[in-house]
Write a structure and sequence with these properties.
It is a single chain. By secondary structure, the chain is of the alpha/beta class. The protein has one domain: Zn peptidases (Aminopeptidase, 3-Layer(aba) Sandwich), CATH 3.40.630. The protein is built from five helices and seven strands; from the N terminus they run H-H-H-E-E-E-E-E-H-E-H-E. The strands form two sheets. It has a five-stranded mixed β-sheet, sandwiched between helices. The chain binds zinc ion (ZN). Zinc ion binds next to loops.
Length: 179
């Protein structure tokens, strides 16, 4: 079967942007002042994680929230587990923005918002890659997990917590920023 990947992506461009904008609109800067046991790095990162997992659930994937610090969206079957590591927390916005960092705008074919390149954009792109493989019914020989962290930018609590409670992937990659 010949697959035109560009065409498959183009067909989902609007949906991808809509889902990406949903998580870009969440101010997910770590906020220790508002942290609680339920929200270990503050309300924003938790909200962004939940929004991402909801997208996975909507699309019919198995999802799991691991202590509001990390979570995953899983697809496939098999002994081996491949991890795709992304994160939805962002660094503080700082100054110098022409537009609201949490109101994404498209200008000159680029998305401007905090986290558009690190790492909400690449995470959503990786998620859509998994979704396309599923939609096309392509055979997979392993389980694939999109693992979403909420504390990559400041302390890696998310991955420590995740790996303490969940299965360690056999291998994986991280679509982080311009990686
Ligand atoms: Zn990053």
């Amino acid at each position: 079967m010949e697959i035109n990947w560009t065409k498959e992506v183009e067909a989902r461009k609007e949906a991808l942007l809509e889902d990406l904008f949903t998580i870009l609109k969440v101010d997910s800067v770590r906020d220790d002042a508002k942290a609680t046991p339920e929200m270990p790095v503050g309300p924003g990162p938790k909200e962004a994680l939940e929004a991402f997992l909801e997208i996975g659930e909507r699309d019919g994937f198995i999802t799991k929230n691991v202590g509001n610090l990390a979570g995953h969206i899983e697809y496939g079957a098999g002994e081996e587990l491949m991890g795709v590591f992304g994160h939805v927390d962002v660094v503080p916005t700082g100054t110098g923005w022409d537009t609201d960092p949490f109101e994404p705008v498209i200008k000159d074919n680029r998305v401007y918002a905090r986290g558009s390149s690190d790492d909400k954009g690449p995470s959503m792109a990786a998620y859509y890659a998994i979704k396309i493989i599923r939609d096309l019914g392509l055979p997979v020989s392993k389980r694939v997990r999109m693992i979403i962290g909420t504390d990559e930018e400041s302390g890696w609590q998310c991955m420590d917590h995740y790996l303490l409670h969940e299965e360690l992937p056999d291998f994986g990659f991280s679509p982080d920023a311009d990686f």
